[in-house]
Amino acid sequence: MGEEDNLMQSEYAPTMPLVNLFADAIKGPLLSTDLQVQIGTLNLIFYFLSLSVSTQLCQVFVEEGVADYVFEILRLSENIDPLIISSLRVLDLLAISEEFFRQRLVSGLPVLLSVLQFIAGIPLHPVQPHALRLVKKCISDCPGAISISQLEDLSQVLMEILRRHTSGELGMLPDTFILVCLTFVEVTKTPSSCQLQKLSFMLHEASRNAILSSLLAFKSTSELLLHSLYLMKGAYSYVHIDGLEMETQDAELASGILEICETHLLPWLRSIMNEGEEEYVVLDVLETFHFILIQGHEIYSRKFAKVLASSSWFNLSFGFLGLYPSEKMKSIIYMLFSTIIDGVLGQDFGQTIRDSYIYLPSDPLDLIFLLGQNTTFDVTLFPAQSAVILILYTSSLYDERVAEDSQVLASLEQYILLNNINFTEGIVGSTILTQLFHLYCFVRGALAVFGIMSYSSEAEKFMFQLVTENDWDLLSMGVHPTALKWMFEQDRLITALACQILNFCRYYKIPGLQLSNHTDKIHIFHIQSIADLVLSGHNCATSLLISLLKHTQQESQDVIFVIDVIQAILDIFSEASNELCLHGVEDALFTLYDLNYEKKIFSSSLALLFNILQSVRSETLSHGGSWLLLIVKMLECLIPKFSDEGFTKESCMIIGIFSLILNHSTHHVLIDASKAILFNSSLISAVYTIVQSACAKGPALVSYNEETATGEPLIFVLLLYFFSLKSLSALLHGNLDWEDFLLSPDGNQPFSVICIHCHDLCKLIHFGPSSIKLVASQCLLELLTRISSYHKEKMHDELRCSMRHLQSIIAVVEGLVFYEDNTVAINCGLCLSTVLGWGKVMKTVEKNRIKIPKWSKLIVEELALSLAMSGLTSTSFTIQHKPATHIAIALLQLDYTPSWMKSVFSTACISGIINKLSPRNMSAEIVELFRELYARDYMKKEHIESLQSIFQACRKHIYNERARENDCSEENIDRVIIVSPDEEGDNMCKMVLVSSMLSTNKFCSGGLHTKQNRLLEEIETIVQLLKDTDH
């Protein structure tokens, strides 16, 4: 305004009667139908009121109804911008009359909301602040005046304003931004806000966009950030209105606020460390963090505390204390420390800092210095030093260093030596002493990594003595892996740690007493911690567990607890079994068996031994130890059960253990223990009895699956027999006549080893259910393979077996070549091809050739037809036809190949098969079949050329597939099944043994890379054969 206007404003004071007359006079022009007259009149009112902004003057205008007229003009304005601008300017001035204007404002609120919705979409609209100010005033003065629908519409408008501003679609005046934040907070305070279903979502979006916008504009103005933080605090407070239980949408809002802090505000705080921003801005952000920590739901407070603690918070905070060394900054930093520690360690852990923060310095080096002082002469030092230990301990859990490790160690040692009287007299509590010990172990372990061994032996001796003499629960509090590793490397702590480990075992399975360390960066001693120690070796963790297993005799339940922990370790790291065996776990287990503990302990120890044996590397098993004694003890337990109690779950587990022992013996370990099993006459007799009993059932055997009283012992006996065949081959190589297994038994001649003859296996294969067929067929295949190898090594040309006996074997296995279980079918196909192969190199006593079974022609014809049939381009047929392929190969390898083979594999048939082959359905068996067809001169030149092209494509396909997988083979993903002593233990044991058995069959087992390797080897063989023939 000019000088004349200023003079008028200061000197001119119109009398109230004149004001009343003026207010009455302008009503007519306000009702004019001429738009320019209305706008001019409104501008006149605005100019008049602006000259002397007086509450009394505005009151007169409101009482004369001018406000009502202006609201009516807005209602009828039809969104004419000049009219809206003039009207809102007048209403903004009239609003200073407070009480007198309030009623009119409530009546005009619907009009204001409608106008706000219109002008909110116009960038930099001049009266956006006026409209928002009026709406905010109405909501704050009369919170019940706005309806639920109006509140929802307003929230949507406010959210959209911030969203569009953040995206760059909508320019905005700073006053508008501030008023949007203030108005949104007022919305959350209204009684109806809790009924808005989408308000939580809108508050989250608004808070996020407000923070993003204010951070982008921070270089030009910091005021926007302060109001954004105010909005975010208001949004977080809304979650907890009336202390109601958190609903889904509120939980999403709380998580969203934490995400904003973690993703946007924390990185921004780190970025301004070196930019020297105003202290009040940093303080406001820190106070917002503190507000979220103390006001929020406990779950989210703890979550946010862990987020802050794991983001180098201690170093960041001390950095701010260095930049802004004010009392206010010091206060909020230490309050945040205490609240964060409450969140990560437990409620009230941070009280020590809250009680003594006024005595704590701002410089971390001064903190370290403070720790090394004697508390005798200053009573304030004791709580301050406890707070320092707490801060250093908590920061160490997150790998933070507030000072050099050597400096911290020197101060800790000085603190220990100067104040040890406080420890022994109980002045310092066990919690602080435990934190002190963990901190000491952490610093010593961290320095040891770099080979720094300088320390005070006196301080170390005192700390070890303190730990040994006091019953502290060292492992219930967070401990860093570095501290834990160093702790378990100290021989002088073994006694104390044994008590700690036993205590841990006792409470391991109690819900709520053990915390997982997989999701949080804080390291609580959990089963994973001890598993890591056992696996790493070079510490006493394994020997402690074995010692507890061996010597914990006063309380039998403790033995169960220790076994449960070892089982859990094996479940995490099956390789831990190697460490257990290297430390003599078999001696501890023998001690348990020798003490004749109760059945539960016996069952649990059997399950533990089984799990160790299934995962241990054979080379780590000792030749001495108590393995032989263990086996003898278990034989003593097993044999009576066959006749007295029947076959129990413990019997299954013992036979499973015997099977694994025999399997390991193939690597020339546990030889004496294996021989004790193989040559035990009682066990041999029991196996014979079980097999003969099953065979006697004939066709009825099909009803006896593994869950029946007959089926369960039978399948375990067959598994034991399979592994005994593997073991006999390794231990008695060249000293065993394998033909004895082929011949019919002589009832008068006792067996010297565990033996099931071929004809008995054939009966089980023929009559048994699918599970029996699977194991029996694998046993028969293993036995026939051993007989073939024996004759090749001895160069025998005669087979001491009747033709009738061989034909009976052929009759059984050929009938199962197309059995529904593909593994059984492959095994039978391989058995048949093995027996047929004997006709090539051996003669029978009867001097007759082995007769080709009639079924063979049908099998080969079916194979040829299926391979040449159109539409079979998937990989499934390569599996389904493996059994028949093996038979066809065996027939082609005979000296007396059947004449009908030439007609089956005609030129047209071979062409059809080749045309249907692709890199995706090629298998090693198919390649081997073509190799034999080529050797028999069944193939033409064009066949060979086509095959060479397919082989090249196969190689390329395999190499490309491996490149995509980055040579990550599925065989490396080896998850061990941990067997438990519960009701399902015998089934799990059987699964492990069957899996181990099948892994020895290269035709049925192996992952993708194993199959690819076999295919590449066969391709290389036939390609080399083709090259040699050409030359």
Automatic annotation (TrEMBL):
Signal sequence, start to end: none
One annotated GO biological process: meiotic DNA double-strand break formation
InterPro entries hit by this protein: ARM-type_fold (IPR016024), PRD1 (IPR044968)
PANTHER family (alphabetical): PROTEIN PRD1, PUTATIVE RECOMBINATION INITIATION DEFECT 1-RELATED
Name of the protein described by the UniProt record: Protein PRD1
